[in-house]
Amino acid sequence: MPGRPKGPHINPTREEMIEREPLLVFSFYLSGRVNVLLGIADEIVEHLNQGMSDEVIDGDRVGRASTLMWLWTLGAYEVVRTLCQASSCFSPSAQVKFQRLKKRLSVARIPAAKMEVPGKKIPVASNRSSDGWDFRNKDLFVGDPESPSDISVRLLIKEFSNVFATLSKDDVFSQHEDAYTP
Question: With 80 as the cut, is the pLDDT of residue 110 above it?
């Protein structure tokens, strides 16, 4: 997965760490949370790869992917919401990427977390599957099952990963606390 350290790094310098993980400039804590989310994303994809085939569906694996995706969505949204809230700490291009990602994540999060149709105070059905299954592509769809805007789990994870993989040290201007200083 892009953005994560590759190979052994014994005592990397601060500059090497920031080159590899520019979000460290903003927040050591939040950078760590992104790495946790990337690890969970890998696990979700692995469960989908192993749980769906032309011959057999392993409901336990697909169910585990679904459960992890629910938690991943909540965490990913909160991380990106925090980055958007501290927009002054980031370059305009990073801000645009974070805003787009936040919007995509909210389409998946709101039906799952608030049990509402995104953008409306209308409930989603309570007696429904938590996601749609796409056996052919070994994928799940999250969001409002009554809406054509359901989102591919694989694509959402890829978007999240790509945003952080393309973040450079030039995109991060300051640390989180600076967003609160007038």
Answer: no
Evaluate whether 82 touches 141 at the Cβ level (below 8 Å): no
**142 touches 73 (CB < 8 A):** yes
Q: What is the pTM of this model?
A: 0.85
- Residue 105 has phi, psi (to 5 degrees) of -65, -35
Per-residue confidence (pLDDT) for residue 1, from 0 to 100: 41
Residue 102 scores a pLDDT above 90: yes
pLDDT band of 4, cuts 50, 70, 90: low
- Transcribe the chain into DSSP letters: -TTS--S--SS--HHHHHHH-THHHH-HHHHHHHHHHHHHHHHHHHHHHHHB-SS-B-HHHHHHHHHHHHHHHHHHHHHHHHHHHTGGGB-HHHHHHHHHHHHHHHHHHIIIII-B-TTSS-BPPSSS-SSEEETTTTEEEES-TTSTT-EEHHHHHHHHHHHHHS--GGGB-S-GGGGG--
If one compares 115 and 127, the residue with the highest pLDDT of the two is 115
| Between residues 148 and 32, the one the model is more confident about | 32
Indicate the burial class of 9 (C-beta count within 10 angstroms; 0-12, 13-18, 19 or more): exposed
Provide φ and ψ at 101, rounded to 5°: -65, -40
Amino acid at the residue 65:
A
